[in-house]
Backbone:
């Protein structure tokens, strides 16, 4: 009886330590596909993202460089991720307000296409033309290229495709005027 209680206590302690470590470890800052540009007169530029090909939900292939000259938001999400689902309508509102200069590439790690389609049908607002859905079922883009392991995670790229900001976790201010103005100024 005492050995069972000891093993149970040991198991609970190990699970607690592992959980604490998972939530408090530092995520990697940059990935192999995000590189530093050369310096000009000794001033370093922001990291930029190499060209990547995406297959959209409708099977059309696009490249990241197709959107050069626009602010690009790479948003990693999934239909099973509760914080992702909460912020998704706000990202759509932001995309509707910034059609002229922002493209949102929403990269989902869902394996089942019907789950994605069902989720999108359930939205009260249709997706604007500047909002693209990409399936990353084998996690090549999310994990291998961007080293994204926690969802949601977002990269905001300037029109020259240099990295402006990386957001880890849900963000509640997507459609707020201050954030829209920030995107406008990029």
Residues:
């Amino acid at each position: 009886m005492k050995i069972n209680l000891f093993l149970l206590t040991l198991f609970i302690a190990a699970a607690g330590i592992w959980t604490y470590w998972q939530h408090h470890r530092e995520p990697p800052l940059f990935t192999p596909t995000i590189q530093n540009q050369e310096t000009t007169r000794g001033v370093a530029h922001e990291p930029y993202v190499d060209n990547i090909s995406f297959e959209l939900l409708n099977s059309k292939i696009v490249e990241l460089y197709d959107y050069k000259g626009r602010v690009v938001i790479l948003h990693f999400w999934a239909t099973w991720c509760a914080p992702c689902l909460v912020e998704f309508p706000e990202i759509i509102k932001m995309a509707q307000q910034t059609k002229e200069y922002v493209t949102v590439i929403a990269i989902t790690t869902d394996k089942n296409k019907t789950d994605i389609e069902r989720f999108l049908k359930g939205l009260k607002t249709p997706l604007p033309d500047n909002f693209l859905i990409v399936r990353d079922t084998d996690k090549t883009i999310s994990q291998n290229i961007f080293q994204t392991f926690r969802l949601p995670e977002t990269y905001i790229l300037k029109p020259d495709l240099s990295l402006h900001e990386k957001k880890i976790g849900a963000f509640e201010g997507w459609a707020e005027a201050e954030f829209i103005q920030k995107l406008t100024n990029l």
User: Anything to note?
Assistant: Helices lie at 2-24, 82-97, 113-122, 140-145, 177-185. The chain has one domain: 49-185. The two ends are 65 Å apart (CA to CA). DSSP finds five helices and nine strands in the chain.
